[in-house]
Amino acid sequence: MDVRILGGLSVCENGVSVTPTAAAPRQLLAVLAASADQIVPGCVLMEEVWPSGAPVGARAELQAHIAGLRSLIATALPVGRPGADGRTPETVLATERGGYRLDTGGGSHDVWQFERAAGAGYRAMEAGDLPRAALRLGEALALWRGEPYAGVDAGPRLRAEAERLEASRLSVLDQWVEAQLGLGRHAEMVPELALLTARHPVNESLHAQFMVALLRSGRTFDALETYGRLCAALQRDGGRQPSARLRRLHRSLLAVRDAGRPRVPAQDRGAWTWARVPAVAGVPAGAGASV
Known about the structure:
By secondary structure, the chain is mostly helical. Helix content is 55%, strand content 7%. The strands form two sheets. A three-stranded antiparallel sheet has the order 1-2-3.
């Protein structure tokens, strides 16, 4: 079974889609896919579909939806009979003590692939291997086709899972940009960062990276304008002020502008990437461009 969550729900068995179009069974399949190969209690499924309280007959309705999902799975199996691996509708969507389990049978799952690639990228960053970090983090980001669970009615469990995935994506994105800047690809990152900061108008890390990329590309005044837009967005977002680190970066930009020459302060531990590092051959120029 192949599961895709990062940009719309898609579940296929033997290459055949078993994703329902009706809202409730689609939502149930999404919850089961989010915890694939694990037991999901029946009460969790009912809370997802009926967050305000299950109506009379909810358990019977849940069982009917499960039966409908198994019927779809049956169409993907050889004549509805067990395949060579012994998979049946009842083993693919198994009834377990207190709940149900969607058995992937060792198939692919884009969230698992994302987490593996992201973990490899983080380890490469910690080891100082920027080319490998940029490559693996870019691979993780390339798995995203859109918003997680797009097109699925989300209850409390799916909303929480979608928020977790989005936060994880932003963390990977931050480190991918950091690796690219560390490789000296400041000018090439400017268009990408312009789009990212437009999508995330109050994300301070992305704006700081954009300011550094602009500065290193000789565009000090554009970097200052970026800071101004961030300040205005933060003010609208609850009257917030930029962090102390952003304010230090702003002062550095003002010093560069006033001095009239392209210089930046020495890097302090934990700051955003400042140093210009020669680009490393073999790192794909388009890595992560689809995020």
